[in-house]
Amino acid sequence: MVHTQLLQTHEAIVLLAAPVVDIDGTLFVQGGIFLALVFILNPLLFKPWLETQARRAEAIDGAARKAVALREQADAMVGDYDEKITAAREQAQDLRGASRKEEDAKQAKLLADARTVAAEQASAARSKIAAQADEARAQLSGRVEELATTIADKLLRKGA
Q: What is the secondary structure of 50-81 as a DSSP string?
């Protein structure tokens, strides 16, 4: 039993001290297989895969550059559009202002003409009324004595 324990302990020590990789003649065979795979797989697998990755990266970068260029072009077009809209609005405001001034001038002229006509008509009416008043006074001034006598007679008869 002690012997079995010693043997198990010795095996454990040997296992712990044993190298992980044995260096012997198979190392050269493994190296040759590795180099053969590198030479065979490099043109068949690695180079096409790397070229595809490079083309993909170039396509992504090209698309990004194109997107940036298109964004700049769109920004320039928006700026130009905004300038043209602003200019058109200013021109429209100027036209509206000029039209409004022209219409105001026409309205002021019409109003002035109407006032002139109204003043002339009022003056003519005043003159006519004054003439009629003078005529009525003239007619009544000759009949004042007669009317006064008639009124006095009527008043005196009522009182009597």
A: HHHHHHHHHHHHHHHHHHHHHHHHHHHHHHHH
Residue 116, C-beta contacts closer than 8 angstroms, at least 6 positions apart = none
Length of the chain: 160
Q: CA-CA distance, 38 to 139, in Å (whole number)? A: 144
Q: What is the pLDDT of residues 30-54, one digit of tens each?
A: 999 999 999 999 999 999 999 999 9
| Helix, strand, coil share (%) of the chain residues, nearest 5 | 95, 0, 5
Q: For residues 98 and 106, give the distance between their C-alpha atoms in angstroms, rounded to a whole number.
A: 12
Confidence of residue 88 (pLDDT cuts 50, 70, 90): very high
Mean predicted confidence (pLDDT) in 89-117: 91
C-alpha neighbours within 13 Å on the C-beta side of residue 93:
6
Name residue 49's amino acid.
W
Is 86's pLDDT higher than 80? yes
pLDDT at 93 over 80: yes
